[in-house]
């Protein structure tokens, strides 16, 4: 259907900046660090999460802006101005992080007898213990490098801890080489707990950077140690491999991994007290402008403070953590019941992490052990390095089943783990393929083929999330188990396409990127817009992780201008400006940041009494629509569809605790209580008061199930 023309009287629509939206998302995550009702250890955890997110932001998003700034010219959306504005926003975020670390979190931990003790605060017994630790565990692994023509600046790995030191006097050969670099090996723990004998009844830690700093003079006998600073450089780390030009993608990626740690520098972190001369020297060495320098009041890598969290294991610290949550076994399944019998009756949904991922593992386990199962096909995007699921696939091969695994080798920062899994599976006889050249396989599918009498029957699992048991306990996702012949036939066709690259047949239920997912979404939105223009009641509610695709954004804006009521529940980056008078009055954008990472993708469309709901592996980003293999599939069972409406849409639209609404000013504002218009109904006061995730935790803890967005 052709797009409806935009009203000529409307002011031009300016989309929000994607990268600023990513930083704004991290501001919302950082808000959990500032909330006094959040347990102290969890506040520290959120601080670490933001630090890790910022690392990835710089590793993936910063280089184009930096290149544009260095060349003094525009490259698309990357300009000198975009670099300077992003640097300003990133500096403000980092400053807030360290202010929270120093002024709120560390004093609060000290009140509980937990401290990271600096050299100046250590008593003689503690200094003696630290010295012994340094001599025993650290010094044997350190090799300082004095810089001169035969000792150039060493290669410094991405995000590694290093020291720069200015030396007085002369070296053993009578020369003045005043600058030395000391690289600290990654194998050393960044946080060390001091033993009880020197802790005085408290729980005391020392940072590795403090241990090294206190003993720098020991590393340079005969020289005077003057100015010094810890430093850390972040490098562009997105692997780029020309798949059309390599014979073996796996080999090319493994070779690329060897160089990832030494890509283009994009950020330099130093101690706040670092001398200007040393900072300037490092900036010149890494070819960085002054805006890329971050002076920090504390450790240069806050993400490593997760080691403190891990080391606080005593029962007395349990009160400083979230109360443990144990996911229920999927409420519509019975342990020990055959999945194949159950799925012949109806489909099953599992809402993770409120319901356990163990249900998915149990499905695969039954398939592996059942002698009537002949074949198992699965996509692998992220499974982690220690995976019960991969062990089951290995056992399936051992039992003589046909196992086909589509492994996405280019899953960012999981490349090495996926290469290792691919090699292991190939070595034992599984059929391993790597998808389609030029596309990432991001779809999440598991298909089981079973002999039942004289026919072969397929059973499938589709998911909005990854096959990773660890993240399945931390991310909200939907698993869909089905024996629907049309849906499983579509899954079979997609697997054949990925393995053979043959032409796809017409699919019955699945929308598939990069073929028709994008086109179908735009057509669906435009159809609702046309219906709204004719006076029909219409509604769109979409939950996803990111909305940055311009064609989809403009389709939503058109539909809103034609009268469609639209709610977008977007966790992270969103470039659509909401509630702008005369442009997006009918569109609301909401972000929910909770205890669990929001990850499920749910697309709801209604025209009059007719409604449809799709689950998907895809966010509404151009890369997902055009450069990935992604799925969206309908939930046709009205009971299951209503459950998804209740739990994934209505609950989040009424969240009065963990939600943020995007204002017409382009800024997110934290919701205090339900702030929906009076026409919205269907949510409980518990959701308004405690948040959607807390309400769902309570619902599933009691093994209950709980109308529809209006």
Q: Into which percent range does the helicity of residues fall?
A: 25-40%
- In angstroms, what is the radius of gyration? 28 Å
Q: In this structure, how is the largest beta sheet organized? A: 10 strands, mixed
Which strand-content bin applies to the residues? 15-25%
Q: How many separate helices?
A: 22
Query: Based on helices, strands and strand pairing, what is the structural class?
Result: alpha/beta
Instruction: Describe the global form.
Output: globular
Would you tell me the overall average pLDDT?
Answer: 89
Which stretches of 5+ consecutive residues score pLDDT under 50?
1-9, 241-247, 704-708
What distance separates the N and C termini? 26 Å
Give a count of the beta strands, DSSP E runs of length 2 or more: 27
Describe the structure.
There is one protein chain. The protein is 38% helix and 21% strand. The chain is built from 22 helices and 27 strands. Strands 14, 18, 19, 20, 21, 23, 24, 25, 26 and 27 form a 10-stranded mixed β-sheet that branches. Strands 10, 11, 12, 13, 15, 16, 17 and 22 form an 8-stranded mixed β-sheet that branches. Strand 23 and strand 24 (610-616) form a beta hairpin. The radius of gyration is 28 Å and the shape is globular. The two termini are 26 Å apart.
Topology, element by element:
Layout: H1 18-34, H2 40-71, H3 80-111, E1 114-116, H4 124-138, E2 145-146, E3 162-168, E4 179-183, E5 191-193, H5 196-199, E6 203-207, H6 208-214, H7 216-219, E7 224-235, H8 249-260, E8 265-271, H9 276-285, E9 293-296, H10 306-311, H11 339-345, E10 348-352, H12 358-369, E11 373-380, H13 388-398, E12 402-407, H14 415-427, E13 431-433, E14 440-441, E15 445-452, E16 455-463, H15 469-472, E17 475-482, H16 485-500, E18 511-513, H17 517-533, E19 538-544, H18 550-561, E20 565-570, E21 587-592, E22 597-598, E23 602-607, E24 610-616, H19 622-626, E25 628-634, H20 638-653, E26 659-662, E27 668-670, H21 685-690, H22 692-701
Parallel strand pairs: 1-6, 8-9, 11-12, 12-13, 14-25, 17-22, 19-20, 20-21
Antiparallel strand pairs: 2-4, 3-4, 3-7, 5-6, 7-8, 10-17, 11-15, 15-16, 16-17, 18-25, 19-23, 21-26, 23-24, 24-25, 26-27
Helix pairs in contact: 1-2, 1-3, 2-3, 12-13, 17-18
């Amino acid at each position: 259907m052709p797009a409806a023309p935009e009203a000529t009287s409307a002011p031009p629509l300016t989309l929000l900046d994607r990268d600023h939206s990513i930083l704004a998302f991290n501001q919302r995550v950082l808000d959990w660090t500032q909330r006094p009702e959040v347990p102290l250890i969890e506040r520290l955890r959120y601080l670490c999460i933001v630090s890790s997110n910022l690392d990835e932001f710089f590793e993936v998003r910063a280089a184009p802006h930096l290149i544009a700034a260095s060349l003094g010219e525009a490259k698309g959306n990357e300009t000198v101005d975009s670099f300077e504005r992003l640097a300003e926003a990133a500096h403000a975020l980092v400053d807030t992080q360290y202010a929270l670390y120093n002024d709120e979190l560390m004093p609060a931990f000290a009140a509980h007898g937990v401290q990271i003790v600096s050299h100046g605060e250590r008593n003689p017994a503690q200094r003696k213990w630290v010295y012994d630790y340094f001599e025993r565990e650290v010094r044997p692994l350190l090799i300082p490098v004095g810089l001169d023509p035969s000792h150039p600046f060493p290669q410094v790995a991405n995000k590694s801890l290093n020291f720069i030191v200015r030396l007085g006097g002369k070296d053993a050969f009578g020369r003045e080489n005043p600058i030395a670099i000391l690289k600290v090996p990654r194998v050393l723990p960044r946080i060390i707990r001091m033993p009880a004998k020197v802790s005085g009844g408290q729980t005391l830690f020392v940072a590795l950077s403090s241990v090294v700093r206190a003993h720098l003079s020991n590393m340079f006998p005969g020289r005077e140690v003057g100015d010094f600073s810890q430093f850390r450089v972040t490098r562009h780390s997105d692997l780029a491999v020309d798949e059309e030009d390599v014979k073996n993608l796996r080999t090319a990626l493994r070779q690329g991994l060897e160089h990832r740690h030494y890509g283009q520098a994009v950020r330099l972190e130093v101690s706040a007290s670092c001398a200007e001369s040393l900072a300037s020297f490092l900036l010149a060495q890494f070819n960085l402008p002054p805006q890329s320098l971050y002076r920090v009041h504390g450790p240069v890598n806050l993400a490593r403070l997760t080691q403190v969290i891990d080391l606080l294991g005593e029962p007395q610290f349990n009160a400083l953590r979230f109360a443990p949550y144990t996911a229920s076994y999927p409420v519509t399944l019975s342990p020990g019941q055959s999945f194949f019998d159950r799925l012949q009756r109806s489909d099953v949904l599992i809402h993770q992490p409120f319901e356990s991922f163990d249900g998915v593992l149990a499905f695969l386990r039954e398939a592996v052990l059942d002698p009537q199962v002949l074949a198992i096909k699965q996509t692998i995007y992220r499974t982690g390095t220690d995976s019960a699921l991969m062990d089951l696939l290995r056992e399936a091969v051992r039992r003589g089943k046909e196992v086909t695994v589509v492994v996405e080798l280019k899953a960012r920062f999981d490349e090495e783990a996926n290469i290792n899994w691919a090699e292991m599976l190939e070595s034992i006889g599984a059929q391993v393929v790597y998808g389609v050249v030029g596309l990432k396989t991001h779809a999440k599918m598991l298909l089981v083929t079973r002999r039942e009498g004289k026919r072969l029957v397929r059973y499938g699992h589709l998911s909005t999330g990854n096959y990773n048991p660890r993240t399945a306990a931390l991310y909200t996702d939907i698993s869909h188990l089905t024996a629907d012949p049309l849906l499983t036939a579509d899954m079979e066709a997609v697997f054949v396409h990925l393995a053979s690259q043959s032409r796809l047949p017409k699919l019955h239920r699945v929308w598939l990127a990069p073929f028709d997912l994008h086109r179908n979404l735009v057509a669906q939105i435009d159809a609702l817009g046309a219906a709204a223009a004719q006076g029909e009641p219409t509604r769109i509610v979409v939950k996803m992780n990111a909305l940055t695709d311009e064609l989809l954004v403009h389709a939503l804006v058109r539909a809103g201008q034609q009268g469609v009521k639209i709610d977008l529940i977007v966790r992270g980056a969103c470039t659509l400006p909401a509630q702008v008078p005369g442009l997006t009055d009918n569109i609301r954008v909401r972000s929910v940041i909770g205890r669990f990472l929001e990850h499920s993708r749910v697309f709801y469309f209604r025209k009059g009494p007719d409604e449809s709901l799709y689950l998907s592996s895809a966010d509404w980003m151009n890369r997902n629509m055009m450069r990935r293999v992604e799925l969206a599939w309908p939930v046709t069972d009205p009971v299951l569809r209503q459950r998804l409406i209740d739990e994934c849409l209505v609950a989040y639209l009424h969240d009065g605790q963990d939600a943020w609404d995007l204002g017409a000013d382009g800024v997110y504002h934290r919701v205090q209580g339900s702030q929906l218009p009076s026409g919205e109904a269907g949510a409980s006061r518990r959701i308004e008061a405690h948040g959607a995730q807390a309400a769902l935790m309570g619902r599933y803890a009691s093994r209950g199930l709980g109308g529809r967005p209006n």
